Amino acid sequence: MKRPTGTPKRTGRSPVADKRNQPPASAPSKVRRKTGKRGRQTRKGNVLLRGIAGTVSLIWRVLWGSMWRLAMVMVLIMGAATAYYYSGLPEPEDLFDARARGSVTMLDRNGKVFAWRGETFGTVNSDQIAPVLKHSVIATEDRRFYGHFGVSPRGIAGAVKINLAEGRGPLEGNGGSTITQQVAKLLCLGESFDPIRWENEAEFEQDCRVSSLWRKVKEVPFAFALEAKYSKDDILNIYMNRSYLGAGARGFEAASQRYFNKPASDVNAAESAMLAGLLKAPSYFAPTANLERSQGRAGLVLDLMHEQGYLDDEQFAEAKAHPAVLSQAAAERAGGYFADWVMDTGPGFLTSETTEDVTLKTTFDQRIQKAAEQALKRIFDEKVKDGSKAEAAVVIMSADGAVRAMIGGRDTTVNGAFNRAIQAKRQTGSSFKPFVYAAALEAGYSPSDIVQDGPLTIRIPGGKPWSPKNYTRRYYGSVTLTDALKRSLNTATIRLQEAVGRDAVRRVAHDFGIVSNLTTSPSLGLGASEATLLELTGAYAGIRNGGTSVAPYGLIELNIRGDEQPLMGQLGGFGERVVSQRAAGQLIYMLQQVVQSGTGTRAKLGDRPVAGKTGTTSSYRDAWFVGFTEQYVAGVWMGYDDNTPLSGVTGGGLPTEIWQAVMSDIHEGLPVLPLSTVSPDGSGIIVSSGGNTPKVITSGSPDDPLAAALAGAMQDAESRQQGEDQGGRVVTAPTEVTGNAPQNEGSSTSSSSDDALSRALNGILGGN
């Protein structure tokens, strides 16, 4: 067969070419893994481990996806909340004053601050704050204040750790809050006080400060909003103006004035540390509550300031060596009872309920108050046994009713406490007797007129006969009115009262200022009715100034802070005439004899003329002494709050000694002036002559001591002569029941004065 000729047609690859393109024989080809039916590679290893790993991977992918989505949602919510709070924030200055009500600042008669009521406040900006004060706050409350954006996770974590370590809940105790978060809390997260929802502002603030997880969560966006809206200095200003720092001081300016009597721009390192230390617990660490405790807290603040570089070694040593002390006014805390009384006498909308900051100028005298407090404490320390619950009250005023000092109890450092000088109504005992004699003198009787002192029985319609007896259970027969008052004779006083008429006595006492209900029974003259110490002292002031009543007062002027024109003027002072100058002058002379040689001899002040009267009620439940000099009128009460009888105490004892100690101290350095009644036109000094007509010694000055001394000498001589001759009129009481004849002077009844049972039967009142 013939072979085909020509170039054969190539199909496919050339075997030669294939050989040329083949890889080297030394390069072995990879062995393929076996695959399953669907071409997947078959994996080797533990099936269980592969399952676990796959599950973990799946969970992680799910969690991661959820977490970033949740985080995104939280960021959006936080941003929305921050924007919401941001939109409602006002200018920073509008947030400085958080008070719903204003404050009352009280000035004494010399214009010096002595007391505050309500929450005092003073606006202060960053440029008005001493740098050391700002540093002390930052070092104490938030050392990273200028480095965070309102929240410090580091601080919160540290606080939680401390709380758990000390066995508390994670949010109990230390909160780790920044200053910004504390401002958010002070602002109550933007919520305003609602009087319908909260009973008072204190309850509202307490609710705002309740720590909870939800409140902590809400603080975060509010803090962010504060940081976005205000500068760091603005936030610090809000914090330093709104923070409560104890003793009624709101903000650092008010606290600096309250404790140190200086503005916040002038405080030193030690004072700054004390103020910053109050932020932890204002009432507990307040220096007015416990100065030593407050100084200890300030020492810890100084340590922090030194550690953080705010104080160098020299400044630190100086502050440690000289801790802060209170100003004199803050340390003495004088006048708490007086301040409470003034707040009660003024209109509520301008005092206790004021929405403005008010300034009151008062009659208060810090020197007199301090002297009275020291004298009272000295007498109780020296004369009263330890542990005694006996109380005392003191009121000191000028003759026109201007109250200069007031003590409402033995504890003189309290505010808002029970004030025994104005709130305790007690039986007045024999301290009421001068009003019986005032009514008699006004009716025309003379100090030298004669009254019988002896057994007496008065029939009371519809009741049992009443037989008063003298305190000593002794009777003195025929005595002058002067002697009857000097010796505080009960039967003689009642005879005089019944002769003059009880209605006349009640009128005189009421018009002089005893506004409490006065009994209509015969025991009126022995002080069976109740009165306050302020009432009784004011009534004696009416006697002292010549028979014109006075209304005790403490307020001179009331101003809204910033206004020059006062809203109110003086509340009280001279009133209407009650008895004539003749009667008042005679009564003053008789009251002088009480101190010179009667039941009140312990009240003597050397050669200084003194007039006054003792008083003791039945069963010795109350003891009094009220008296006056030319300069001051003072009253002292002593007793138990629960009416427990005083043990061996009468008006002529401890109360008189307290009065003498108080008046001795407050008269130190004052001139010795004669006691007299000055006529209104100043033409002369009226002195009772012992007769029906007064003698007037005219002088160039109504305070002429020579004229007063001459008049007094003449009156003494006349009174003694008339007493010896018993030439005065004899007082006969129409209600007198004849029976036992009066006993001779110095004799006593069959009952012993030492017999407790006899004393208990000594009538309704046996005052001395």
TrEMBL record:
The keyword Cell membrane does not apply. It catalyses: [GlcNAc-(1->4)-Mur2Ac(oyl-L-Ala-gamma-D-Glu-L-Lys-D-Ala-D-Ala)](n)-di-trans,octa-cis-undecaprenyl diphosphate + beta-D-GlcNAc-(1->4)-Mur2Ac(oyl-L-Ala-gamma-D-Glu-L-Lys-D-Ala-D-Ala)-di-trans,octa-cis-undecaprenyl diphosphate = [GlcNAc-(1->4)-Mur2Ac(oyl-L-Ala-gamma-D-Glu-L-Lys-D-Ala-D-Ala)](n+1)-di-trans,octa-cis-undecaprenyl diphosphate + di-trans,octa-cis-undecaprenyl diphosphate + H(+). GO terms for molecular function: carboxypeptidase activity; penicillin binding; peptidoglycan glycosyltransferase activity. Keywords: Carboxypeptidase, Glycosyltransferase, Hydrolase, Membrane, Multifunctional enzyme, Protease, Transferase, Transmembrane, Transmembrane helix. One of its GO terms (biological process) is proteolysis. Residues 1-43, 713-768 are annotated as: Disordered. Pathway: Cell wall biogenesis; peptidoglycan biosynthesis. Residues 393-633 form the Penicillin-binding protein transpeptidase domain. InterPro entries: Beta-lactam/transpept-like, Glyco_trans_51, Glycosyltr_51/Transpeptidase, Lysozyme-like_dom_sf, PBP_transglycosylase, PCN-bd_Tpept. Residues 717-727 have a biased composition (Basic and acidic residues). Residues 735-746 have a biased composition (Polar residues). Its EC number is 2.4.99.28. The chain crosses the membrane at residues 47-64. Residues 30-43 have a biased composition (Basic residues). Residues 120-305 form the Glycosyl transferase family domain. GO terms for cellular component: outer membrane-bounded periplasmic space. In the N-terminal section; belongs to the glycosyltransferase 51 family. In the C-terminal section; belongs to the transpeptidase family. PANTHER family: BINDING PROTEIN TRANSPEPTIDASE, PUTATIVE-RELATED, PEPTIDOGLYCAN GLYCOSYLTRANSFERASE. This is peptidoglycan glycosyltransferase. It comes from Paracoccus saliphilus.
